[in-house]
Amino acid sequence: MKISICTISFRHYLLSIDQIAYWGQTQGIHGIELWGVHAKNLSNDFHYGKEWLHGFGLETSMISDYLPLDFPSSKIIGETKELSSLAKHWGTKKIRTFAGNKGSHETSKEERRKLVESIKLICDLLESEGQFLLVETHPNTLTDNVLSTLTLLDEVNHPALKVNFDVLHIWESGVDPVKALKYLLPYISHFHFKNIASRKDLNVFAPNNVYAAAGSRVGMVPLFDGAVNYQEFIREVQDCKLDVGASLEWFGPNVKQVLENDFSMVKRMFQVVQ
Known about the structure:
The chain is an alpha/beta fold. It is built from 11 helices and 10 strands. It is globular and about 50 Å long. It starts with a strand and ends in a 5-residue tail after the last helix.
């Protein structure tokens, strides 16, 4: 399995993409997951892209963004085309988004119908470019639980639609990630790995906190020190022989040290492709 780091982990650090790439190379990490806003802000400097990243022995695993699914189709098309172009420039076929901004139980039938149509539109556009849309399993979206995620996949019914399986958020929904893995296995194209000290700390990942420079980081812990059993989960992924990548997500302090240690431990468990 190829392991990536996320540029979003460095969002509050005064580091350039050059420094992140060099550091990733020194650690033996295979790639970066590029935050959409970072890709957009680098788009005017053509020096940066897949060839430049390959010079460090790295690749772009995915571009992670937030497509405006509830906007008019013209806006959706424009945003999708921009991300598709950026994905080509950086050499990845995967674009991650959230499936709306309301939980599945709070979303009306009509709202859900419109979101499904928007996702179909995006998938049609990306399929024509040989790319994929990955909806992330995430609270306060249509993919906040396994059943709603499977229903969405069936409703959209498109080969370009895949799943970014966020292990922590699956656990947060009350389902054992190992069991969820078996249900979602045919659709999984990428994993997010992160952990938490206990269920009572989950609010630390609320968007209004986790993206804030002054937000709390209490409860964020290294991958193998938290409530989610990653030893068991990784063994199950190995048994399934699922050949997809994973990104180490870290939103707390001491980013390099934590990611170095997490990568080292994941590497021991996985037969990481060199």
